[in-house]
Design goal:
Helix content is 34%, strand content 29%. By secondary structure, the protein is α/β, with parallel strands linked by helices. An eight-stranded mixed sheet has the order 4-3-2-5-1-6-8-7. It is globular, with a radius of gyration of 27 Å.
Length: 389
């Protein structure tokens, strides 16, 4: 039976993207190549020569095919990579013309388990962050070989994702290369470790209360409003850079004026939307309706999301779970919709306001289910004479 071995190059800040000369969105590629030495290359060649197969995700497969396929006679890497059986996990690839390549579709867990049964040796998994996340979740990786490079890249795709389940690993060996690269080899642990210090340093109720008291000095109850422009990418592409920038500037001016008119605070613009806070949910709602109506006159459709909850006050920003809830709710809003949480629905006042249930939704990264509503108002044009509701 084969073993699935994850072999990755990582920066100290956890980035795995573009270790070679493939494209990086900030141009920060080839960080591994610049820090590799003969010992690092020798180790990588030995690992490859000992393997029986290679497993890749679609994106990594396409990068590897473009680079390694023309190097079929290169020693030691190109010849070995071209000759090894290669398996690519993809639901979108229609064909794979690179020699010795098989496309894996269907149930990932069942297919990888079957692959490990067929291959009598090591299966090396390179790159492929999305595939790695799924395999870690299913407990299908038998060994982690992480080659840590002494660089802080600052941007790029990270190997291990936020909000993934906790996994425990056991360090089986390590090695330091002359270039400062460190190889860390781990195996999965089935049970969480039980250390005596976990009990010794558990927070007491008094310590928790003291921390909350200190943190709560900068927390207030507020109504949060997020907006964004519907299909901003398409509009920008159709208008061109300069006209689009001018339209966005006008959008920001109108948003700032409307937020001030409804006694809110514009925290920041977000490129194609705004984040604002209000002292009452009804003011936030009326601001959203007014902003939607005025911007429609410029040919801009917006969506909005509103939530009332605790927020953390920072120097020139706001944070906390209330902000995250409003941001996630915005992702549930359709074109020209104003979506609110149940809290806003229960607190808002005004006989001209109506709320239609959109059902319960799971908001990414937020525990539990959240009932959302589409808010409507009996009139469309903003009332410029009063903002006291």
């Amino acid at each position: 039976m084969g073993r699935l071995i994850l072999s990755e190059f990582l920066t100290v800040d956890g980035v795995m993207e573009a270790p070679g000369f493939e494209e990086h969105r900030s141009g920060r590629n080839a960080w591994a190549m610049r820090l590799s030495d003969e010992d690092v290359q020798r180790y990588n060649a030995e690992q490859l020569l000992a393997a029986e197969a290679i497993l890749l995700g679609r994106t990594t497969y396409q990068i590897w095919e473009a680079f390694w396929r023309p190097l079929a006679n290169d020693e030691p890497f190109g010849r070995r990579i071209n000759r090894l059986p290669k398996f690519v996990v993809s639901s979108t690839l229609s064909r794979a013309d690179w020699a010795n390549t098989t496309i894996i579709r269907g149930d990932l867990g069942a297919e990888i388990a079957a692959l490990k049964d067929r291959v009598a040796g090591d299966i090396l998994l390179y790159g492929s962050a999305d595939l790695v996340a799924a395999l870690v979740k299913d407990g299908l990786i038998d060994e982690y070989r992480l080659m840590l490079f002494p660089v802080l890249l600052g941007s790029g795709k990270r190997l291990f994702r936020d909000e993934s389940d906790m996994s425990h690993l056991r360090l089986t060996s390590s090695r330091t290369f002359g270039s400062g690269v460190v190889l860390l080899i781990y195996e999965p642990e089935t049970e969480a470790p039980a250390g005596r210090y976990a009990d010794a340093y558990t927070w007491t109720p008094e310590q928790v209360e003291s921390l909350h008291a200190a943190q709560d000095t900068d927390r207030v109850l507020a109504t949060v409003m997020f907006t964004d422009i519907v299909d901003s990418t398409g509009r920008g592409a159709s208008l061109g850079d300069r006209p689009w920038r001018q339209l966005l500037d006008r959008h920001d001016e109108i948003a700032r004026a409307e937020v001030e008119r409804w006694h809110g605070q514009l925290v920041k613009t977000t490129g194609d939307g705004v984040l604002a806070t209000f002292d009452a949910p009804t003011r936030a709602l009326r601001c959203a309706f007014a902003l939607r109506s005025v911007l429609a006159g410029l040919g801009l459709d917006i969506r909005a999301a509103i939530h009332t909850g605790e927020v953390e006050l920072r120097s020139n920003d706001v944070g906390g779970i209330g902000i995250h809830i409003a941001a996630r709710a915005l992702g549930e809003a359709g074109e020209r919709q104003v979506v609110v949480t149940r809290t806003v629905r229960d607190l808002a006042t005004g006989t001209d306001l109506t709320f239609k249930s959109l059902g319960a939704a799971g908001l990414r990264g937020i525990p539990g289910e959240w009932e959302l509503f589409e808010a409507s108002i009996a009139y469309q044009a903003p009332d410029s004479t009063s903002s006291d509701q």
